[in-house]
Every structure is written in C-alpha cells, then in structure tokens.
Amino acid sequence: MGASTKLAQLATKPLSKIKNPYVVLSLVFILGCMLKLVITSHSGLSMLLVATTLPILLSLGISKLSAAVVMIFAGFCDWGPNDSSAIFAAENVSGMPIMEYFMSYQGRVAGILILILAIFLPIYLSKIDKKLAENQQNISKENLKSEDSNCPAFFALLPIVPLVLITVFSFIDTIQMDVITSNVIGLAIAFLLEMIRRKDRKAVCDDFNVVLKAMGTCFANIVSILIGAAVFAEAIKLLGGITIVSNLLASVASSPIITMTLMSLITFGAGMLLGSGNASWYAFGPLVPDVAAQMGVPATTISLPMQLSSGVGRCVSPVAGAIIAVAGMVDVDQMDLIKACSVPAALTFVMNMLISYLIVMM
User: Fold this and answer.
1) Angle (nearest 5°) at CA 74 between 68 and 75
2) 240: burial class by Cβ within 10 Å (0-12, 13-18, 19+)?
3) What is the pLDDT of residues 116-168, one digit of tens each?
4) Cβ-Cβ contacts under 8 Å for 301 (sequence gap 6 or more)
5) Phi, psi (degrees; rounded to nearest 5) at 140
C-alpha cells in the first residue's frame, strides 16, 4: 500500500529545510527512533530511512558512512507496546502488562538513551566525516531523489492505528485491548480503505493474501525460535545451569548492577553473533526469573537491560539484515560500517546499564 513509506516521507519532509547538516542528522536519528515504535522491523525501518532521508543527508555533505550509521542506529531500540520482544519482556519475563512495563521502565530508559545518542552521534560522526574529507573519501553531495508513494496522505496514519488503540484502551478498564486484536483491527481498516480506493477488488484480495502468507512465515519463524528457546532454557535448568550461574553471580559480592551487566553481555553478544535481537532475547530471556529469584531482585532489574542490549548487539553484527541491506543500498563497505557503529554501540551498552539500574532501583 505504501503507507509506511508515506509516513516516513511526510515525517522527514520538514528536515530538508534545515541547513546545518549535523542538526539534520540528529533529527533523522530521533525521528527514526520514534518511527521504530510503529515500524518494528529493524531492517524495514532502515531501508525506509535510506529511501526517504539519505538524499537529504548526502545533499548537506554528510558522508555515506555517517548516514549509514544513523540508519542503523535509528532502529537500535526494540521498544514500545507493539514490539514483540518488549511484549515478551513484559508479560512473559517480568510478569506485568506491556503498558506498565513501557511507561514505568522501558520508555524512560529508552528515551534517555535516545537523547544521549542524539547528542553523541553528531559529534562522533562529524569527526569521522572530517577524517574522510582529509583523505578525500566518501563525501558526497549527490542530488538524489527520495522514494515517493502514490497512496493518499492520510494513509500515513494507518501504521499508527495499533499503537493508538493499545495506548487509548490501556486507560479504559472496561475494555481489554491486546496487541493481536489491535493489529487485526488495523489490518481490517487498511483492507476496507483499499477496497474503497481501488477499482480492482481482486487485486486487493490478492495483496491481502500476501499479507496473510507473510504473517504465516513470521509466525512459523518466531514459534521455532520460541520452541528452541524453551528447550534450551529447560535443558539448562535440568542440568543445573541456572543454579550454577546464579550461585556464581551471588558469590561475586553480588551487586545487582553486576548481575545486570553480565546477563546483558550474554544477549549483546548473542545479538551480535545471530544478527537478531529477538532471537537473542527469546533464547536467554526465559532464564531471567530464576536468576532474579536467586539473586533476590525483581525480574525487571535484569530483563530490561538484557532486552535493550540484544538490539544494540544487532547493530554491530555482520549477519544482521539491516547491516547487510544498508551497506548495500548506501554503497559502503560492510566492515567499515560495523567499525563505525562499534563506538556508539559500546557507549549505548554502558549507559543502558547505568540508566536501567537507576530507574529500576529507584
């Protein structure tokens, strides 16, 4: 339908009026993080930002490498009431409603991390661009055209429908609105609007079949990950792995922040190796309740930084879909992109530990 493209296009249009390149770069990053609430796919969001904001950044003199780093880090945070890993962290691991988890914990930590990176990235990337300019490499002011979408402008609101429904009904006790229901309602609204807009009703139904098949594929993949994660977690429990890990952590004079850091390093490393924040979090998240109980701390103390760290690890993974897609679309070397992303990834991991500890333990 082009609704997500229209949303990104309308959201980024005002940026072309700003002349300071690194202010624009920072705003693109913030905008991308906000869009991540709606467009939950890291690679999908990155490619949309490449199509809509890369021409703006290049025309202002930002290097391709710096622009690519922003495209990757715009999706570093798997957050919001519509994100599957956040839902898993809230309901399956921390044992609380997703809106409570998001409003009281995740949203606050993520918001601070986004602000820190919005300040750090322009400073860091300007130095990278200065070095590239000195070496006369990779600085471009190409006059590229951004991708357009021929759907009506109000279609840009469609990706936001599930998020709005979840948020509004979280304040109404008499009506329960879960993520699945909200997405089905949003899909039904989109289908009806397409039936009204397009004359070829059969083509609309064919497009809807594509959606259903894609849902089936995603469902099968996620279920496979969950089954594998459940078997992995149960095997570790039966072998006494949880007791070994928790006793080891307890023996280290165990400050909660040490436990948080060690457990988060696991999901960060797994995210880097697997190229998927979800796979990393689904595999190791089920271990959190038992470890937290042994340590005598709330599950959220460990689950929150672990879940966010898995997404950060994905940003420096050579097998991550977003890294591969952005490097190819922007035409930069994949390893150069990973090296450039490593510094903000390290900073984000450290700040995630500190901020999560302060907010959860306050």
Assistant:
1) 110
2) exposed
3) 999 999 999 999 999 888 776 555 544 445 555 677 878 878 877 877 887 77
4) 256, 259, 260, 292, 356, 357, 360, 361
5) -135, 140
What's the predicted TM-score (pTM) here? Answer: 0.76
User: What values do phi and psi take at 172, rounded to 5?
Assistant: -115, 110
Distance CA 141, CA 170 (A): 46
Residue position matching structure tokens 């500890």: 357
Distance of CA 188 to the CA centre of its chain: 25
Number of C-beta neighbours around residue 28 at 10 A: 26
d(C-alpha 310, C-alpha 312), whole Å: 5
Q: In angstroms, rounded to a whole number, what is the distance separating the alpha carbons of residues 102 and 82?
A: 10
> Do residues 152 and 4 lie in contact, with contact meaning Cβ atoms separated by under 8 Å?
no
CB hemisphere CA count around 238 (13 angstroms):
6
Contacts 24+ apart (CB under 8 A), 266-269: 266/306, 267/306, 267/307, 267/309, 267/310, 267/313, 268/309, 268/310, 268/312, 268/313, 268/349, 269/313
Angle between helices 321-330 and 334-361 (to 10 degrees): 130
Single-letter code of the amino acid located at 292: A
In this structure, are residues 10 and 155 in contact, taking their beta carbons and an 8 Å threshold?
no
pLDDT of 59 higher than 60: yes
Q: Does residue 237 surpass a pLDDT of 80?
A: no
